[in-house]
Amino acid sequence: DIQMTQSPSSLSASVGDRVTITCQASQDISYYINWYQQKPGKSPKLLIYDASNLETGVPSRFSGNGSGTDFTFTISSLQPEDIATYYCQQFDNLPLFTFGPGTKVDIK
Amino acid sequence: QVQLVQSGAEVKKPGASVKVSCKASGYSFTTYYINWVRQAPGQGLEWMGRISADNGNTNYAQNLQGRVTMTTDTSSSTAYMELRSLRSDDTAVYYCARDHEFVVGFDYWGQGTLVTVSS
Questions:
Q1: What does the alpha-carbon distance between residue A9 and residue A103 come to, in Å, rounded to a whole number?
Q2: A86 in contact with B at a CB cutoff of 8 Å?
Q3: pLDDT bracket for residue A1 (50, 70, 90)
Q4: Are A46 and A34 in contact (CB under 8 A)?
Q5: Model pLDDT for residues A31-51, shown as the tens digit of each residue
Q6: DSSP, residue by residue, B52-91
Q7: Residues 6+ positions from B38 with CB-CB distance below 8 Å
Q8: What whole-number distance in Å separates Cα of residue A88 and Cα of residue A36?
Q9: Cα(A32)–Cα(A20) distance, rounded to whole angstroms?
Q10: Residue A32: its chain B contacts at CB < 8 A?
Q11: How far is B86 from chain A (nearest CA, A)?
């Protein structure tokens, strides 16, 4: 099974800060990773697909990068509405999916 | 617009079964897979499996094989997830989510259904 790790598990940053989250796969998964945002009490929302592509309607301050085993998700300028937990999702071994453990982002 | 509306919260005793529904609207139901994802209180997301709304083909997460069954009713555009032999660690919010129209991923999600397993 492919295992996904995320770091940090939580972070606090100020409005306007650049925030970076990493996701590491236990084996090479090429670019087969998505990123989701889940606000408290809400359903998840797809932000980034195929490692680096912005889903339609998602603000450009969100971005993703990486391939192989190491991936990054960045918010270029943190906004109050970005308070959420962010999850990576790998799909290298379709039809199975695996989510990372999540990173909770707060405002300092 | 695309909507996935799930059934209401459930409270079950250990050993019982639960069946959660997910009614789709706003798109051609049989064109897409429906996935089920659960989230235990304060925990992360766990993909449970998926079902083709076209032909009923299913894929389940290994840890749930034998306890979960996913079905669809195309006449009502509704997907169902049944989980049997419930345990306390099955307490979670259960989400249905549609396969994305163009890429691999999930683009529309239900509002979630809280299933509480308690004696």
A1: 5
A2: no
A3: confident
A4: yes
A5: 999 999 999 999 999 999 999
A6: ETTT--EEE-GGGTTTEEEEEETTTTEEEEEE-S--GGG-
A7: B45, B46, B48, B92, B93, B94, B95
A8: 6
A9: 19
A10: 104
A11: 22
